[in-house]
Amino acid sequence: MSYNAPILITGFTPFGGETINPSWQVAQRFADREMLGARIHAIELPTVFGDAEAILQRAIRKRRPGLVLMLGEAGNRSRISIERVAINLADARIPDNAGKQPKDQPLLKNGPAAYFSTLPVSQLHESLLAAEIPAECSLSAGSFVCNAVMYRALHVLADLDASARAGFIHLPYLPEQAVKHRFAPSMALSDQVAAIEIVLRTLLDQ
Amino acid sequence: MSYNAPILITGFTPFGGETINPSWQVAQRFADREMLGARIHAIELPTVFGDAEAILQRAIRKRRPGLVLMLGEAGNRSRISIERVAINLADARIPDNAGKQPKDQPLLKNGPAAYFSTLPVSQLHESLLAAEIPAECSLSAGSFVCNAVMYRALHVLADLDASARAGFIHLPYLPEQAVKHRFAPSMALSDQVAAIEIVLRTLLDQ
Amino acid sequence: MSYNAPILITGFTPFGGETINPSWQVAQRFADREMLGARIHAIELPTVFGDAEAILQRAIRKRRPGLVLMLGEAGNRSRISIERVAINLADARIPDNAGKQPKDQPLLKNGPAAYFSTLPVSQLHESLLAAEIPAECSLSAGSFVCNAVMYRALHVLADLDASARAGFIHLPYLPEQAVKHRFAPSMALSDQVAAIEIVLRTLLDQ
Amino acid sequence: MSYNAPILITGFTPFGGETINPSWQVAQRFADREMLGARIHAIELPTVFGDAEAILQRAIRKRRPGLVLMLGEAGNRSRISIERVAINLADARIPDNAGKQPKDQPLLKNGPAAYFSTLPVSQLHESLLAAEIPAECSLSAGSFVCNAVMYRALHVLADLDASARAGFIHLPYLPEQAVKHRFAPSMALSDQVAAIEIVLRTLLDQ
Question: Is B92 part of the contact surface with chain A (CB cutoff 8 Å)?
Fold first, then answer.
């Protein structure tokens, strides 16, 4: 894979009563870095249906990235969670940051039911385990804004640039978030950053 | 929806060290019954990739059902679990009953990434809760034989009969299975059967 | 064990936003029954620190039971949960039904740290599993009113009647409760009643 | 509290198929350090019923510590887990490292049913949360070797030195352990060490 093309990495604004979002805490660490000749652009997306997808779509059209790595928060998971698939469904258990709470809606009328991640999911999984970072492959990115963003990026790139790759990774709470919940697991920021560094290196080394 | 057409209900053979499978324990209770004029055919599918889909596909082609209700076991879930979507992926954590354990394989080369259930998932969910039966909508039917069968049925019907409906429901362990596991939840057979009766009535009443 | 002496079985009033409590739903089924010559008295205890213990203590002093079987609700457990031990601690995460919420308090100043159940816990566990009812032995009855009642009964009987036996069993939600929660497991009322019937028979058969 | 007296900190050898034990990984970091004038002695206890207690008892008699902080592994927990109570019960689900697997046995014939931790459990909990380290108070240290060691230390000190304090803290898996399990949560070693540092400082500051 050639990465003269830039890399987009995205995180989200806090939501659901949290004051930080691990996805942006991690993504911003990579902002404006260069890896193997590829420039990394970091974007903080609003946790708002429609707005998040629109901002990402514009960035993809503008930057023409070779790789789009999207990050999000999954507060009930204890591991780096590599998503396999995004589905054409918006079904929100809580309101997004603009108060929208779609139920049983398609993200894109007449869009395909799903897009698979175009990242080598199993290979990333093994790279993380080899580095002693707890990780898992996940079969569902949910039906909230995370899934919506993943679906949109894959949809846009399917048209725009078949050689570009895109995928989504869910991150656990940071410890400072978990202390406010009774049982939630968490992962240290340094381990989360190390995980994404490994993911990027694995993708660029191909 | 007219159901002069017959109904297919399917369950699976036991797998993963179990000696029974709740899906077939439940499905066989409906064998050869008639509901609102529709004849119910019950089929026990082998828990084997490829074979299960082939048997179901033949039955669909032969019976021309108006409704295909597929049942399976999800031993870690405590509720009637109505699946929303089947994905084009075979990725098995344990071998199936013929020793096959596909990894990262598509079910159907060049098939669509996913099919949504054509059942009214949210309405079924509400019908079950109204009847005081614990239920949930699920965003993943896994990537084992259950998902393979759901994908195939929806794929075949997409070609064959756009008016037919099909969907998949995962069932908890029966109590007699849960006693052999340390923590697994379970649900009484009578409640599982009542749940599927309600699902069928809800679908036929439309 | 001779059971010419009566049996006390106790349940609790609903708490924590619930409108029923499985412990009383089950206990009342045994009210005024006779088993192997022993009369069963059922008592619904208030979910209130202090009051619950006082009512039970009076009943024990009045009835002089040979067996005290206390039941309570544990909404996060999926199995019949036989408690091994009660500890001298009141530490409430939520207020009781009178608004009391003790923190880090002993139940009985200068009382022993704990009392073990005087029921044959492992034998009851095996009786339930043999009857295909999911069950477990538990090492903690919590630090809410359930534990307080168990502690008091064992304390009173330690003085009053060394031959009497007493123990506590936590019950899962009933399905009609679980439907109001997102993930909670449950067990059918008929299975819960069958479990307690087996427990009583196992104890009386000794 | 005066800590001219030395501090004992204990961890365990690996067990249950693991090759490391977080409790010893953490405890050895404190070996031979001095905190506020108190010398810290670290001991690696064998995960063997009887042997572990005997070694700890000898060390207590020899060192006359003012504080005994015992650490152990709880692979299913995601947080620093401060134990409240040790019970007089050995009941092992798996064999210890010498192949012993006691069932339903008292640790000490005619010993009291339980000992409460003599550490200020709630205060330690709050200190950890204030430092943004996920922590919880636990009502059960289990019935394996961890509980046995906690029970013995508290029993010995009850006789020997009423002013000495002792308690037990369970630690999550380290990430390098969690990668070998499918779902287990974990915590970074640096955060586990920081937690125990805070615990010691909180105790010494009193």
Answer: no
Once rounded to an integer, what is the mean pLDDT over residues C127-152?
98
Rg (CA), chain C: 16
Active site residue C181: no
Q: Give how far Cα D74 sits from Cα of C79, D172, D193, Å.
A: 22, 5, 16
pLDDT value for C114: 98
D1 or C125: which carries more pLDDT confidence? C125
Contact list, D88 vs chain C (CB under 8 Å): 116
Considering only CB atoms, A179 lies closest to which of D134, D178, D187, namely D134
D78 interface with A at CB cutoff 8 Å: yes
Place B109 in a pLDDT band, splitting at 50, 70 and 90.
very high
Asked if C170 is an active-site residue, the reply is yes
User: Which residues are registered as beta bridge partners of A137?
Assistant: A82
Q: Report, as ranges of residue numbers, the positions in chain D whose pLDDT lies below 50.
A: 1
Strand residues in C85-194 grouped as ranges (E): 85-87, 114-116, 135-138, 165-171
Number of C-beta neighbours around residue A69 at 10 A: 24
* Mean of pLDDT values over A83-107: 98
Residue owning tokens 């409240």: D84
| H or E, element range at B110 | none
Nearest Cα residue to A82 out of A18, A150, A30: A150
pLDDT digits (tens, 9 = 90+) for D59-118: 999 999 999 999 999 999 999 999 999 999 999 999 999 999 999 999 999 999 999 999
CA distance D206 to D9: 18
CA atoms D169, D172, D176, D181: torsion sign: positive
Euclidean distance between CA atoms A53 and A124, whole angstroms = 25
> pLDDT tens digit string along A29-55?
999 999 988 999 999 999 999 999 999
Q: What is the ipTM of this complex?
A: 0.95
Residue-wise burial string across A93-129, b where 16 or more C-beta atoms lie within 10 A, e elsewhere: eeebbeeeebeeeebeeeeebbbbbbbbbeebbebbb
**What 3-state class would DSSP assign to B130?**
helix
What are the angstrom distances between the C-alpha of B46 and each of A162, B14, B21?
Answer: 39, 8, 11
Partner-chain residue, chosen from D103, D114, D142, that has the shortest CB–CB distance to C85: D114
User: If you average pLDDT over residues C182-205, what whole number do you get?
Assistant: 96
User: By the CB < 8 Å criterion, does D162 face chain C?
Assistant: no
Chain A residues with beta carbon closer than 8 angstroms to that of B84: 87, 89
The type of residue at D206 is Q
Best residue of B103, B116, B118, B138 to probe chain A, by most A CBs closer than 10 Å: B116
Domain coordinates in residue numbering, chain B: 7-205
Calculate the CA B11 to chain-centre distance. Answer: 7
Contacts of C85 in chain D (CB under 8 A): 87, 89, 113-114
Q: Shortest CA distance to D140 belongs to which of D193, D43, D72, D194?
A: D72
What superfamily does domain B7-205 belong to in CATH? Peptidase C15, pyroglutamyl peptidase I-like (3.40.630.20)
Name the percent of chain A lying above pLDDT 90: 94
Residue to mutate among B25, B129, B132, with most C CBs inside 10 A, is B132
Tokens of B74: 């999800």
Nearest to C157 by CA among C86, C74, C206: C86
User: C1 falls in which pLDDT band (50, 70, 90)?
Assistant: very low
Cβ-defined contact of C188 to B183 (cutoff 8 Å) = no
DSSP-derived secondary structure letter, B61: H
Mean local confidence (pLDDT), C48-59 = 98
Contacts of B85 in chain A (CB under 8 A): 87, 89, 113-114
Output the pLDDT for position A184. Answer: 94
